[in-house]
Amino acid sequence: MKVKPIDELTGIRFFAALHVLFFHTFYLSGSLYESSPDFIKRMVSLGDSAVSFFFILSGFILTYVYTNKDNELRGTSRSFAWARFSRLYPVYLLGLILDLPRGISYFFNEYSSSVALKKVAITLVAYMGMFQSWHPRLTAAWNSPGWSLSDEIFFYLLFPFVLPLVLRIKKDLFFILTLYLLPILLYFLGEFHFDFSTGAGHIFWRSFPPLRLCEFLLGVFIGKTFIKEQSFFRIIKEFNQLFGLLFWVVLFFSLFIISVDFGYPREVTSHTFLVPCFSLMILILSSIKVPFTAVFRHPLMLLLGNASFTLYIIHMPLLFYMNQLGISEGLIFFILYLLASLLLSLLVYKWFEIPLQRFLRQKYNS
User: In whole angstroms, what is the distance from residue 132 CA to residue 120 CA?
Assistant: First the structure.
């Protein structure tokens, strides 16, 4: 039985993917970037925080979609794994194929042929196997946004075992607080031995799958609150006008957080403030009709939201090809690049992602 899509979450997902694109490429807009106020630059520079939103949303959506009426995993672990594989891997692999010319050129320009060949082979195996985020030196070798899918596949492997446990837990608040506080505690403990602010340390903290698991599990707990209509969900429904306003307060507060430099490490700022903001936004948006969110349900926004995964994966390889045209920055270049990214993501979604996903699922069911 298919569950009803939550359109608002589909639409808002596009803006999160767009934030990641700006994070990677806004500096290429030249005069627009240079003339932008510091708070805009700061806001864009924390675009990678949108990945936290994706991780939390992933846990929420999977719980919503795959919990059956008996509070167990809908279907088998095998059917769940195949459904997630058919959903993600084709576009993920397309991102690698598109990135091959850039990656091969980089390795063979930087290293001797024998060394480059070994590095290409090792990093390709890591990317294709979706375990590149387990080591900082492998994480960004190919199509850098793909590291988050390496984390996601780790979450998916755990999900069939985690979901029944979470659904049986009675003391939700205790576990939610633990999941929220644990990464902050680990960060400060780890800082005694490692520098997480730059280089490999930053990549490790940002990408290592067990360190991001808490965000996914928070999404699972939020999904549980939603599907089981627990007390906080009922409070939101009862005071819907208040929480409708609170959604926008939290949204603008999260934008304020990423636009101001508080002098704390970005990882701490992101998790301390943005993770609870994202969690609350997802729960409110899925529970009630929030005023002025009709834009998220607009057919164009739904289309862009559904294509947001493709946008997330292909926008960096596309940049390489556009650079080969001989123009690498400037306002006109950035506008053309942005439009090309949106158009290509829609085309890939409609003519590649959806048909291949259907084909793979039919093969599984045949």
Answer: 13
For 269-293, the pLDDT digits (tens) are 888 899 999 999 999 999 999 999 9
What's the number of CA atoms in the CB half-sphere (13 Å) around residue 245? Answer: 3
The rounded distance, in Å, linking the Cα atoms of 216 and 193 is: 26
Separation CA 266–CA 194 (nearest Å): 16
Domain ranges of the chain: 7-365
First-residue to last-residue Cα distance in the chain: 18
Percent of the chain at pLDDT above 70? 99
Does the predicted model carry a pTM greater than 0.85?
yes
Residue closest to 187 by CA, chosen among 131, 269, 279, 274: 269
Question: Which pair of tokens denotes residue 239?
Answer: 């005071």
pLDDT band, very low/low/confident/very high, at 326 (cuts 50, 70, 90): confident
Task: Write a three-state SS string for the chain.
Answer: CCCCCCHHHHHHHHHHHHHHHHHHHHHHHCHHHHHCCHHHHHHHHCHHHHHHHHHHHHHHHHHHHHECCCCCECCCHHHHHHHHHHHHHHHHHHHHHHHHHHHHHHHHHHCCHHHHHHHHHHHHHHHHCCCHHHCHHHHCCCCHHHHHHHHHHHHHHHHHHHHHHHHHCCCHHHHHHHHHHHHHHHHHHHCCCCCCCCHHHHHHHHHCHHHHHHHHHHHHHHHHHHHCCCHHHHHHHHCHHHHHHHHHHHHHHHHHHHHCCCCCCHHHHHHHHHHHHHHHHHHHHHHCCCCCCHHHHCHHHHHHHHCHHHHHHHHHHHHHHHHCCCCCCCHHHHHHHHHHHHHHHHHHHHHHHHHHHHHHHHHHHC
